[in-house]
């Protein structure tokens, strides 16, 4: 069972079966998935939830479901994970987020990311956390900057799971060390 994190406006909590439907809708939204190779099917989205639900027990951190405290509405995920592809900066722990379009522009990603960083550098005992995204994903890069991450320009890379010439192949790498 994963720990629940609380911010002024949000709960970062374990995924529930009731989250599967709104999460699948979020993952199928072309606007939300603009900086990913393709929207996800319901089966792919459910598979991601299944993987997320095992992470905390294995690692002491995970991608938490994000809920607005005031309304109880599920709006996506934010948290920590271990990427499973080969790159020059691996092994690493990544911070990431994915929120529904109607949650954008409210500072939720930044607020939730600060809570995830606190957990990573606190109870999880991490020394460094990275984040990466396609060069075109300027909103996520702004969140990385707002939470104190630094762009490691020498670390930018071509994502190994994307074919040569793919519009999203080039990725930027951001880092933050334990304070």
TrEMBL record:
This is GNAT family N-acetyltransferase. It comes from the Bacteria. Residues 10-179 form the N-acetyltransferase domain. InterPro entries: Acyl_CoA_acyltransferase (IPR016181), GNAT_dom (IPR000182), N-acetyltransferase (IPR051531). Coiled coil: none annotated. It holds the Pfam family Acetyltransf_3. It comes from Kribbella lupini. SUPFAM superfamilies: Acyl-CoA N-acyltransferases (Nat).
């Amino acid at each position: 069972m994963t720990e629940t994190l609380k911010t002024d406006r949000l709960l970062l909590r374990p995924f529930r079966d009731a989250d599967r439907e709104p999460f699948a809708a979020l993952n199928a939204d072309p606007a939300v998935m603009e900086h990913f190779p393709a929207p996800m099917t319901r089966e792919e989205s459910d598979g991601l939830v299944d993987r997320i639900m095992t992470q905390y027990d294995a690692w002491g951190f995970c991608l938490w479901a994000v809920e607005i405290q005031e309304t109880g509405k599920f709006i996506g995920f934010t948290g920590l994970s271990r990427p499973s592809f080969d790159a020059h900066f691996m092994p690493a722990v990544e911070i990431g987020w994915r929120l529904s379009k109607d949650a954008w522009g409210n500072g939720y990603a930044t607020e939730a990311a600060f809570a995830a960083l606190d957990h990573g550098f606190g109870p999880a005992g991490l020394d460094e956390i990275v984040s990466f995204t396609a060069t075109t994903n300027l909103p996520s890069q702004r969140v990385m900057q707002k939470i104190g991450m630094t762009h490691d320009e020498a670390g930018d890379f071509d994502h190994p799971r994307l074919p040569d010439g793919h519009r999203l192949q080039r990725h930027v790498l951001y880092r933050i060390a334990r304070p």
